[in-house]
Design brief:
The complex is a heterodimer of chains A (about 110) and B (about 120).
Chain A: E1 4-7, E2 10-14, E3 19-25, E4 30-38, E5 44-51, E6 56-59, E7 62-67, E8 72-77, E9 86-94, E10 99-101, E11 105-110
Parallel strand pairs in A: 2-11
Antiparallel strand pairs in A: 1-3, 3-8, 4-5, 4-9, 6-7, 7-8, 9-10, 9-11
Chain B: E1 4-7, E2 10-13, E3 19-25, E4 31-37, E5 44-51, E6 54-57, E7 64-66, E8 76-78, E9 87-94, E10 105-106, E11 110-114
Parallel strand pairs in B: 2-11
Antiparallel strand pairs in B: 1-3, 3-8, 4-5, 4-9, 5-6, 7-8, 9-10, 9-11
Classes of the chains: A mainly beta (about 110), B mainly beta (about 120).
């Protein structure tokens, strides 16, 4: 059974800092990996999706990488802003179309 | 606007009562899902449906029931058999094509609490 882990559980940084969020998974046989943002009491908003054949995806200040062989993905946020404060979740879609989520990293960007 | 609508935003359940959470999508997606989110935990799959009139149990289906009579709608009933129903419930959908670029879209969630 696929296990998805996100470390750290919480992260606090000053505004303007570049930061990296980590996601690891135990089974490398995946279709894709998706990063989401969740604000308190809200649903999940999709940020980036990396297909199994891809190594990275970029959107604005966000860059997500995927290394299937090591079972890792990172989400890089450049020049962080207070508006980036939220919980970031990664989810892995397995070859059986099963979706597994990490518990998330709660990010706080201080002005 | 295309998207997923969940209602109500907040719901309270009395002891022994069944309650139903609504989920409607206008994205023309075949697949729909219900997840439960507890503080500090990842999302856990309750039920999913790949096509109208068909659905499968997820990891934590006990105490829940669903129906899929229309492509657009996938209501979730939390029955009295669910002894710990307090959680944030999220509905999601995807194309259901099973391709590597299949993306999951979410509604805004329903917070269920026990009175």
């Amino acid at each position: 059974k696929q296990e998805v882990t996100q470390i750290p559980a919480a992260l606090s940084v000053p505004e303007g800092e570049n930061l990296v969020l980590n996601c690891s998974f135990t089974d490398s046989a995946i279709y894709n990996l998706q990063w989401f943002r969740q604000d308190p009491g809200k649903g999940l908003t999709s940020l980036l999706l990396i297909q199994s054949s891809q190594r990275e995806q970029t959107s604005g200040r966000l860059n997500a990488s995927l290394d299937k062989s090591s079972g890792r993905s990172t989400l890089y946020i450049a020049a962080s802003q207070p508006g980036d404060s939220a919980t970031y979740l990664c989810a892995v879609r397995g070859n059986n179309n099963d979706m597994r989520f990490g518990a998330g990293t709660r990010l706080t960007v201080k002005p | 606007d295309g998207g997923i609508t969940q209602s109500p935003k907040y719901l309270f359940r009395k002891e022994g009562q069944n309650v139903t959470l609504s989920c409607e999508q206008n994205l023309n997606h075949d697949a729909m899902y219900w997840y439960r989110q507890d503080p500090g935990q990842g999302l856990r799959l309750i039920y999913y449906s790949q096509i109208v009139n068909d659905f499968q149990k997820g990891d934590i289906a006990e105490g829940y029931s669903v129906s899929r009579e229309k492509k657009e709608s996938f209501p979730l009933t939390v029955t009295s058999a669910q002894k710990n129903p307090t959680a944030f419930y999220l509905c999601a959908s995807s194309t259901g094509q099973g391709t590597t670029n299949e993306k999951l879209f979410f509604g805004s969630g329903t917070q269920l609490s026990v009175l």
